Amino acid sequence: MKRIVVLISGTGSNLQAIHHACQREGWPARIVAVLSNKPDAVGLDWARAEGIEAVGLDHRAHADRAAFDTALAAEIDRQRPDLIVLAGFMRILTPAFVSRYEGRMINIHPSLLPAFSGLHTHQRAIDAGCRVAGATVHLVTAELDHGPIVAQAVVPILDGDDAATLAARVLQQEHRLYPMAVRWFVCGELVIDGLRVRHTGAAAQHLLADTAGGKDTT
Ligand code: GRF
After folding, report:
1. How far is CA 152 from CA 34, 70, 76, 80, 93, in A?
2. Ligand 1 atom at shortest distance from the alpha carbon of 86
3. What is the 3-state secondary structure (H, E, C) of 67-128?
4. Per-residue b/e over 124-154, b at no fewer than 16 CB within 10 Å?
5. What digits encode the pLDDT tens for the residues 20-32?
6. CB 87 near ligand 1, within 6 Å
7. Which one of 36, 113, 174 would you pick to mutate in the ligand 1 pocket, going by the greatest count of ligand atoms within 8 A of its CB?
8. Could you identify the atom of ligand 1 that is nearest to the CA of residue 14?
9. How far is the C-alpha of 59 from the C-alpha of 106, rounded, in Å?
10. Ligand 1 atom 9: the closest Cα is on which residue?
11. I need a labelling partner for 173 at 20 to 30 A (CA). Which of 15, 34, 167, 210 fits?
């Protein structure tokens, strides 16, 4: 049974999607703990209600980024995880922290990387006149939002979209994409070769597309 630790900063809707898919599909894995740099994160309460250990670790209570990352790593290591899932975890991590978990830490970013790394991705995609947007699941490396790409989801940008409507459309696809990618990882179906990630099964779908403009076609 693979042990998953999820790091969040807010609502944790991706956390919930992963947990439900894990239970529904009977993965050889379970979420053993949810950690947050925000002790009042809604997702922590949700995890506790589900019987998952949930720990708030306030980054403001630590002297600097390195001190917080050291405390966070201690908490993570206590859980002996096989996989660390960043799900809306809004902290830049130190290189020492990233290298400690390299190859077993993944993130979801709400853009089609390598375009629009960083913040305000939806508004930036609209302002740039993009006709599509999306989300990317990638392995975490020292360079922010730049690790090997596991899977991507594409949605259209519609006339009249603002950052909120586009974010909602992307998030809907994140809830399909992230559980799929985590399942591949815990089932040992991914081969990482430099920046390229291969799936061992022929039927793998690395791209999810919402061509219906928000209507879920599955
Ligand atoms: C998602 O859009 C994720 O891609 C971004 O933050 C949001 C988190 O949402 N990094 P949630 O906390 O999973 O609901």
Report:
1. 24, 31, 27, 28, 23
2. 10
3. HHHHHHHHHHHHCCCCEEEECCCCCCCCHHHHHHCCCCEEEEECCCCCCCCCCCHHHHHHHC
4. bbbeeebeebbbbbbbbbeeebbbbbbbbbb
5. 999 999 999 999 9
6. yes
7. 174
8. 13
9. 21
10. 88
11. 34
Q: For 52-111, how does the pLDDT look when each residue is reduced to its tens digit (9 = 90+)?
A: 999 999 999 999 999 999 999 999 999 999 999 999 999 999 999 999 999 999 999 999
For the record, the structure tokens of 180 come out as 């799929």
Atom in ligand 1 nearest the alpha carbon of residue 16: 13
Higher pLDDT, 171 or 145: 171
* pLDDT at 205 (0 to 100): 66
* Tokens at 91, concatenated: 């902290």
